[in-house]
Specification:
single chain, alpha/beta, Aspartate Aminotransferase, domain 1, Aspartate Aminotransferase, domain 2, 2 domains, four-stranded antiparallel sheet, binds pyridoxal-5'-phosphate
Length: 410
């Protein structure tokens, strides 16, 4: 164990001087809870409930079907996408909000394979988030392609002149490892492959310069650092240079050039509109749109600065006060916005912490995961969370039988 890196008074001083400290008031956080799970489900931003009430009671309740036009419901996928574009370094017309991350992965993987006819391989990480791997396998099966697994340590090594698309997570969900999006994209392009980035764990918290990096395609979810609520719709990014060529497989009417022409044959809409398939989920879109107000006017670079300091402080304190193995890179250039710790009874550790008011989550097989969302977390939260962790470990609270039965969501 090393010497104490910071005490609670110092943490309180950092909070008092925090230029982002005022953002916490934009969230309806419950009481004394220390919420370190915004990388799984972001908390409720304050404006969302009023917006939902208005959308439900006035737009839906009073104005009924005319709200598709008068309230702009039909444009919500593009309008919300344009707001997310700023957070991921894209032009406003390169991002659309539609469907889930899983469905968007399917659409964009098929589209990528079609953009590289003759190339028969889809490459993805062997440790990818399950849905990414399952969808890649399904796409390979449906299109008669080979699925090749790569190692996150050097993903481009698996990319050859047979590869249509390389699908990667910008930040790894389990350990929080961050890839160099620009360098990986450039190296994959040198081999003629497209790259599809999953930004679920970076959008809204880690700077992402899709356009400057020459990125092709990306997906990301609305319910983590974008705080759009449980099951919020996801987003798709398509670089403008691919807009005309891109052919996605779910050719529903909302991706048609003229949905209300009711034509027999499918003609894709221009731009990212063609990535839509069915009728947009207006209530969920309204919640996500309102949630984005919580980071309105805030630069991702400023969020990143604080995020690194929060995770760095947590890492220092964990090293000072515990012997836990840390999975997350200490190098700022390789760390997302979470810290993952290994413990043989990690599930019990997480449950005991929740009982003490510190919410993280568990990931198989032995990982306790803590997300640090800089928009609402304070340095004293980091300090207090580590003190609670120490108490759980010293009291072996993780061994309490009450913490061993697994709920469906861990
Ligand atoms: C990296 C990553 N991709 C995809 C998903 C989930 O996708 P969906 O919203 O379709 O369930 C998650 C959810 O945690 C994730 O972490």
């Amino acid at each position: 164990m090393s010497s104490t890196p910071l005490d609670r008074d110092t943490a309180a001083g950092l909070d008092a001087a925090d230029p982002l400290g005022h953002l916490r008031a934009r969230f309806a956080l419950p009481g004394e809870l220390i919420y370190l799970d915004g990388n799984s489900l972001g908390p409720l931003p304050v404006g969302v409930a009023d917006r939902m009430r208005d959308t439900i009671e006035r737009e839906w309740g009073q104005d009924l079907i005319k709200s598709w036009n008068s309230a702009g419901w039909i444009d919500l996928p593009l309008r919300t996408g344009a707001r997310i574009a700023r957070l991921v370094g894209a032009a406003e017309d390169e991002v659309v909000v539609t469907d889930s991350t899983s469905v968007n992965l399917f659409k964009l993987l098929v589209a990528a394979a079609r953009l590289r006819p003759g190339r028969r391989v889809v490459v993805t990480e062997s440790t990818t988030f399950p849905t990414d791997g399952y969808i890649a396998a399904a796409v390979a099966e449906i299109l008669g392609l080979e699925l090749r697994w790569c190692d996150r340590a050097d993903p481009v090594a698996a990319v050859g002149d047979d590869t249509a698309v390389l699908a990667l997570n910008h930040v790894d969900y389990r350990g929080g490892h961050l890839l160099d999006l620009e360098a990986v994209t450039r190296r994959a392009h040198e081999r003629g492959a497209l790259v599809l980035w999953d930004l679920c764990h970076s959008a809204g918290v880690v700077p992402v310069d899709l356009d400057e990096s020459g990125a092709d395609l990306a997906v990301g979810c609305g319910y983590k650092y974008l705080n759009g609520g449980p099951g919020a719709p996801a987003f798709c990014f398509v670089a403008k240079r691919l807009h005309d060529e891109l052919r996605q497989p779910l050719t529903g009417w909302m991706g048609h050039a003229e949905p209300f022409a009711m034509a027999r044959d499918y003609t894709p809409a221009a731009g990212t509109t063609r990535l839509q398939a069915g009728t947009p989920p207006v209530l969920s879109l309204a919640a996500l749109d309102a949630a984005l107000d919580a980071v309105e006017g805030v630069e991702v670079a400023d969020l990143r600065r604080k995020s690194l300091r929060l995770t760095g402080t947590f890492l220092d304190l964990v090293r000072a006060y515990t012997d836990l193995e840390v999975l997350t890179p200490a190098d700022d250039r390789r760390r997302g916005s979470q810290v993952s710790l290994r413990h043989p009874r990690a599930y019990g550790v997480v449950q005991a912490l929740i009982a003490r008011g510190v919410v993280g989550d568990f990931r198989e097989p032995d990982v306790a995961r803590f997300g640090f969302a800089p928009a609402y977390l304070r340095y004293i939260d980091v300090w207090d969370a580590v003190q609670q962790l120490v108490a759980v470990l010293q009291g072996e609270e993780y061994a309490d039988p009450a913490y061993s039965s697994r709920s469906p969501v861990t």
